[in-house]
């Protein structure tokens, strides 16, 4: 593609230099630039990409996209907003890949990964060639790729979608984070179905208030359904959790048809007769395409919500309800989500990814429903993230546990001890007994202490890191997998 063709995608852009210059690829990281690439100078939160234009040029960049003219002898496309330009140019360069397949996006504070996994299973079982993009991994066409975050930058997203389309993917199901919406990472991606799981506190370091956080998520629904692409001819659906009060706000914003799911409120897809055991969850579901009973192998009422969202999305793809039931009942669980660690011990050890107050409360409620003995909770909070959730999570851990081991999650650049103190402030708020919690910064030691305290029938919940196989301390990435550490400790425990 020529730079002048890309330039024509942005009405107010100004092109300096040779318009016939060929672009072989696009990069926003100077370290990845190869000869012939277009380099986009992104002003980031930490550094300004314009500073790396010389490095990009040295690596053979054929042209630049920037917000100000640089003293570099290369064709330059000057735009007002490089981030916006990146979403438009990437979409054009990769040939609008979201128009070549069906797109289902899932947003919400908790449950995105789980819901996408459930939809992927149902559609795949139904014979639809499905792609997945999210926190744990990207996978399609029999391959898996490591994810660098929950939702990719627009450039990488369009690259992935194009690759999916070329490999015959018919439907892509992906997580859409609030960061992604706020930063325009999914601008230009044409969704058929936008799903909302729930809105509870997280990321206030970034969004500042719950109103701003909700508004960021709202972008997903306000952009949906305004135009029906003549070449795609598909209807648009906003699938909303009727039991969450933010649903009404999103419903008012969208031009798409609103379909609801829920348990407590009237909804198009509604669950009843829920019963939860340590092995799974039973419920009856009444839908606009019939009713049935479902026995999930995943525990917790929250997983009923995730299943309802998946059922609704699948019904909209015309998958018969009985097929959906069979697929859902076959899912053993999602990596690192209420995952049992079994090394032959006579107490339960569960690893879960709860890293928000609501997530922790939900998983602890589920655990309390089936625990035959004590509930022993090991958890911490990530550094360089919302600090205000720390005391809330401390309070919740104390409320539902017999003993809490406050430890480190990914401290990142923060002092681990200060994070623990923030958690302790909430934990002691309601006057817990001094001997019902311990502060152990070393995560392995905390897991060891919890497992050593366990008796038959007890549950040890290790929350916060789920599928993660590392721990970020300072700038250093250490190997750390809660499941492997727990297994190791159980096997080595002296009885
Ligand atoms: C706050 C945030 O979203 N930050 C993202 C942002 O980082 P940044 O703005 O600081 O980037 P930067 O380091 O200033 O770099 C600016 C530009 O210079 C370029 N650069 C930099 C160095 C160099 O040598 N050469 C060069 O060209 C960079 O490639 C970039 O284009 O752009 C980076 C590159 O795309 C992202 O990796 C980074 O995500 C960081 C790692 C992050 O932690 N993001 C989290 C908060 C996030 O987005 N999370 C959500 C999930 C949340 C949830 O589900 O709970 C997600 O969707 O992943
Ligand atoms: N529907 C739900 N409502 C509340 N909590 C949930 C729900 N689903 C899962 N959880 C809890 O949240 C944790 C994370 O779940 P999941 O990974 O599916 O969410 P996510 O939205 O993808 O998270 P992330 O924002 O990190 O991508 C789970 O381990 C569980 O404890
Ligand atoms: N997507 C979330 C994941 C948090 C996981 C937790 N282990 C942490 O590191 O804080 C975030 O980036 O805030
Ligand atoms: Mg996720």
UniProtKB/TrEMBL annotation:
Per UniProt, UDP-N-acetyl-alpha-D-muramoyl-L-alanyl-D-glutamate binds at: 30, 150-151, 177, 183, 185
Extract the Pfam families matched here: Mur_ligase, Mur_ligase_C, Mur_ligase_M
Q: Which cofactor does it need?
A: Mg(2+)
Residue stretches making up the Mur ligase N-terminal catalytic domain: 23-94
Mur ligase C-terminal domain ranges (all copies):
336-466
- Assigned EC number: 6.3.2.13
- Entry's family note: Belongs to the MurCDEF family. MurE subfamily.
Q: What is this protein called?
A: UDP-N-acetylmuramoyl-L-alanyl-D-glutamate--2,6-diaminopimelate ligase
Classification from the root reads: Bacteria, Bacillati, Bacillota, Bacilli, Bacillales
- The record's gene field reads murE
